[in-house]
Amino acid sequence: MRTRPKRGASPQTPTSPGPTLRRKTSLQKARSSTSDDESDESTANKRRLALHCGCISCPCSGFRRKNDPWAPDRSWILTIPKTTICSTCDHPLASHADLVANIPPADRAELMKIASDVEAIIERLKTHESASVQHVLFELLQSLQRTMRSREPHVLKMLPKTFGSPPFQQPTIIRLVAAYLSCLRLSEACAAVQVEIALMFLNTLNGYDVPPPEMLTENKDPEYKLMFSRWLFFCSFPRAYRSIPCYETVSTFGRKFLLSTRANFQKALNVKASKQLKKARESVESFAVKFQKFLSKEYDLQENRLDADAVYRFEQALVIGFHEATNVLPSKHRTEITPELQNGVAESNGMNVDHEKPSTSYAVLAPPPNKKRKTAKKEVKAPVTNTPLCSPKRWEPVSSDFPPDLVKKAIERNKAEETSRDIDRTFKARDDPFYVSVKRLESIKKEIEEGVIWFRVITNTLDPQQDQTELGWLLETVKLFTKQLPKMPVDYVTRIVFDHRQETMVLLKKDYGVVGGICFREFATQGFSEIVFCAVYGNQQIRGYGTHLMNHLKDYSIRTRKVYHLLTYADEFATGYFKKQGFTEKITLPFQQYNGYLKHYEGATLMECQLHPKIVYTDLPNFLLRTRDLYKCMAREQHPYLRLKYGGIEHLFKEKKDSAILPMSKIPGVNQLDDRGKGVEPSAFSNSSDLLSTLRTVLRKLREDSHSWPFLEPVQAAEVPEYYEHILFPIDLRTIGERVDRKYYVHEHLFIADLIRMFDNCYKFNGVDTEYYKAGYHLNKRFKQLWKHYFPTSALKVSLPAQEPLI
């Protein structure tokens, strides 16, 4: 039954929305429009990424359309239906796009940049490039494609190890320029000017295009080809392809780079027409010529004549940049650098410099202001720090006191006794620790030759196609460390071993797998490697595997990595092992060089092993044994009666008369001893009158000193009765003078010992706030001067007390 509407009421029609409802509807429409645009953009990005990523069903290299070449225009991917079949894997486009949809939006944006670089490199490979450039382009393309297939925008993980990792030469160019500036010994104004010119030179060098090997007829060196490839991969290509990290030339290469390119660089510098460099071009050219002369002298930057602090400060001034350089210069070199110069230098070579984030050898160059790009945090390797030299310690040559004839005779004797010596060692092997080490080494070398054991350096490359055998060895290494180091958590050991920055040297044994390993991390810019874990299975330790494994690591560090310092934190159970391997608690590296880089363990001791670049540590036992044998032969040549055995002296007492004193010459063998054999210096008996004259001169000078008054006479027991209760062996200058007159001092050591005892008695009995202590201290200082002048070769050393007088 239908009801009639009331009179005056409007018919039942939909009510119009109010103002508030109308506003909400418009907002919803705007949001809907925005979401549609975002959805369209997201869909387009997914489809474009599908060209480079795989699909859900199989490990495809990317979507490809049938009968369609890889054309520059790829807009067709946006219009084809999702059901279109891939010509590579026969799966629809939807399978490729759905896999990309699971990638987070931030990672998807980074992958889009990588995809743009991949497409640009493919087009560039179609052009006529030189063979050297095409080779590096192909390597770069493969690494970027691997990154796309992994769907993780971490380019650094996928970079090939073909070219290594920067810096490639030590010291770097920046370090060399800093050393050159420190040698100039400039005034305040000149120092700032030279820093400005050096910055122009470095920026010009950063923008310099290294000629390919094909253009150089005179340079066919393979090292130049490798250097050119590294420069392309790490310094040149990143300017065009923004998805890969860019390194500065001056923080990546060193002396070899400058010497190899100096002729072409000088030409490029002469013809450079930048407006910003016109006024300063002559200064930069003059700086380049003088700097090349400095390089040709091959200065060792660790020599004492170079001021290490000045080198460090100049390097910081060059690294940090132009507007901050005045804050890091030495105080005597500080001045103001004009803004015009900053802008001129920063733009002189066409490269952009970020004045907010100075770059280092491991920092990523900043993008241009109009093309700002985001850089993953992991790409910035390290903050701005000093880049120390990775060169070995400058070992001083050992001078030999042995005449050449003696050395020649010792070598001949060593060869003649070699057979008999080996026979003796066969029956008395345990009596000679050197020979025991050699026999262990021989057994290990035999096992290596037979293929029973071998050594490998492995790491987790984060490559999906990494050799599964190496991953298995890493798992076995984790098992080894957790068993031999029970205090270390399993999760922590696993994380360290599988860290791509860590390397592991493993000892592999046939039918056993990994029986020993050393996990270490190299800090090339700091000049050392850190040993994190070191272990060998208990049932394999007595074979000498642990020592040989450490020696292999030392040789690997010297020959392959040019690292000459090993650091580690050793617990109380490992300090003995590391001491046997040459580690010591005395750290020679500067504290700032390793501070903040090492993993500190509670209750552990920091130890260091400094490596000699000329020693082959895997053959060290043989070297030590041969050196010891040669030294013994030299001693026998110099002292032919050293090993003679004489009869006893009992018969001498029977032959002597009751009251007669036996002369020393009657004892067999005494006449064959020289003065050194009698325990005294030969010079002590060469001229007794000279010794007596010297002692009287020193004694007279001490008596004439104004501080000698407490020591001229013996201490009177009536005046100081307790003195002789504390001082058991009193001595004074008068008593010493009487002994000189009686010729008591047959050797200078006796004279020096009496004077040292006199001063010790003074310090023992008198307080530091007394006049006697003060007089003894100053007279002791005077005697130390006389001792250096009159007894320079004496074995007895004269020193002053640590506590100075208080009055």
UniProtKB/TrEMBL annotation:
<keyword id="KW-0206">Cytoskeleton</keyword>
<keyword id="KW-0963">Cytoplasm</keyword>
<dbReference type="GO" id="GO:0043992">
    <property type="term" value="F:histone H3K9 acetyltransferase activity"/>
</dbReference>
<dbReference type="Pfam" id="PF00439">
    <property type="entry name" value="Bromodomain"/>
</dbReference>
<dbReference type="InterPro" id="IPR037800">
    <property type="entry name" value="GCN5"/>
</dbReference>
<comment type="similarity">
    <text>Belongs to the acetyltransferase family. GCN5 subfamily.</text>
</comment>
<keyword id="KW-0539">Nucleus</keyword>
<dbReference type="InterPro" id="IPR036427">
    <property type="entry name" value="Bromodomain-like_sf"/>
</dbReference>
<dbReference type="GO" id="GO:0005634">
    <property type="term" value="C:nucleus"/>
</dbReference>
<dbReference type="InterPro" id="IPR009464">
    <property type="entry name" value="PCAF_N"/>
</dbReference>
<dbReference type="GO" id="GO:0140672">
    <property type="term" value="C:ATAC complex"/>
</dbReference>
<dbReference type="Pfam" id="PF06466">
    <property type="entry name" value="PCAF_N"/>
</dbReference>
<dbReference type="GO" id="GO:0045944">
    <property type="term" value="P:positive regulation of transcription by RNA polymerase II"/>
</dbReference>
<feature type="region of interest" description="Disordered">
    <location>
        <begin position="1"/>
        <end position="43"/>
    </location>
</feature>
<dbReference type="Pfam" id="PF00583">
    <property type="entry name" value="Acetyltransf_1"/>
</dbReference>
<dbReference type="InterPro" id="IPR016181">
    <property type="entry name" value="Acyl_CoA_acyltransferase"/>
</dbReference>
<keyword id="KW-0103">Bromodomain</keyword>
<dbReference type="GO" id="GO:0005813">
    <property type="term" value="C:centrosome"/>
</dbReference>
<keyword id="KW-0010">Activator</keyword>
<dbReference type="InterPro" id="IPR000182">
    <property type="entry name" value="GNAT_dom"/>
</dbReference>
<dbReference type="InterPro" id="IPR001487">
    <property type="entry name" value="Bromodomain"/>
</dbReference>
<protein>
    <recommendedName>
        <fullName>Histone acetyltransferase</fullName>
    </recommendedName>
</protein>
<feature type="domain" description="N-acetyltransferase">
    <location>
        <begin position="457"/>
        <end position="612"/>
    </location>
</feature>
<feature type="region of interest" description="Disordered">
    <location>
        <begin position="360"/>
        <end position="388"/>
    </location>
</feature>
<feature type="domain" description="Bromo">
    <location>
        <begin position="703"/>
        <end position="773"/>
    </location>
</feature>
